[in-house]
């Protein structure tokens, strides 16, 4: 019978991408030997199309685009069970976090692109107002996601209970917040931030 063993090497993976994940997470992707203990303990595993151990395997096989296009990274609850259980000290929770960061600039729509849209609008609000403006966030999300009536009936209830405000004032330290965003932008240009 033909020997079908597969040998992982720098040629089987996209080394540039793996290095980015390792730098951001502070954890080795290459060290995983596929024992599956992480997936056995993951509470979100049933919602994921790729369980945690397979996420690492896909990275080792250079198939990071499948990982970024999938929903698994968005269902991860950052509970760190996987990292605690790993006998090889692979910090999978940190790897999941790094993958979510890297998906920000990835080409092609993620299956959970609405999560990315919500993230972007959240950050835009902070940039503009220096704080969160929930009414604007909900309205912009419904408009840009095409789900115009999503949670529409909740709005009046939240307004009457004072949980939502119709109008919002900018944070008085907005100039400080603008400086933070400019600094992050500079760091990203220099490759010092993801
Ligand atoms: S527990 Fe660790 S070594 Fe085992 S499959 Fe998961 S990440 Fe890999
Ligand atoms: S950190 Fe994420 S991947 Fe790891 S066990 Fe928790 S939910 Fe699963």
UniProtKB/TrEMBL annotation:
Protein name as it appears in the record: 4Fe-4S dicluster domain-containing protein
Keyword hit for Iron-sulfur: yes
Annotated source species: Geomobilimonas luticola
UniProt xrefs under SUPFAM superfamilies: alpha-helical ferredoxin
Pfam families documented for this protein: Fer4_8
Alphabetized UniProt keyword annotations: 4Fe-4S, Iron, Iron-sulfur, Metal-binding, Oxidoreductase
Cross-referenced PROSITE patterns: 4FE4S_FER_1, 4FE4S_FER_2
Residue intervals of the 4Fe-4S ferredoxin-type domain: 22-52
Gene3D superfamilies, A to Z: Alpha-helical ferredoxin
């Amino acid at each position: 019978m033909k020997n079908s063993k597969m040998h992982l090497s720098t040629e089987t993976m996209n080394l540039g991408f793996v290095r980015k994940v390792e730098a951001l997470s502070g954890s080795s992707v290459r060290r995983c030997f596929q024992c599956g203990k992480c997936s056995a303990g993951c509470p979100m595993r049933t919602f994921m199309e790729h369980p945690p151990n397979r996420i690492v395997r896909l990275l080792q096989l250079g198939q990071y685009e499948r990982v970024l296009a999938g929903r698994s990274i968005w269902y991860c609850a950052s509970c760190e069970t996987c990292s605690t259980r790993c006998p090889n000290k692979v910090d999978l929770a940190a790897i999941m976090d790094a993958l979510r960061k890297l998906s920000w600039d990835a080409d092609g729509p993620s299956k959970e692109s609405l999560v990315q849209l919500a993230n972007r609008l959240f950050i835009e609000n902070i940039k503009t107002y220096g704080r969160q403006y929930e009414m604007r966030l909900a309205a912009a999300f419904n408009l840009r996601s095409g789900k115009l009536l999503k949670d529409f009936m909740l709005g009046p209830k939240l307004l009457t209970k004072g949980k939502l405000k119709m109008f919002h004032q900018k944070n008085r330290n907005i100039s400080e917040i603008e400086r933070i965003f400019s600094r992050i932008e500079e760091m990203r240009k220099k490759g010092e931030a993801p």
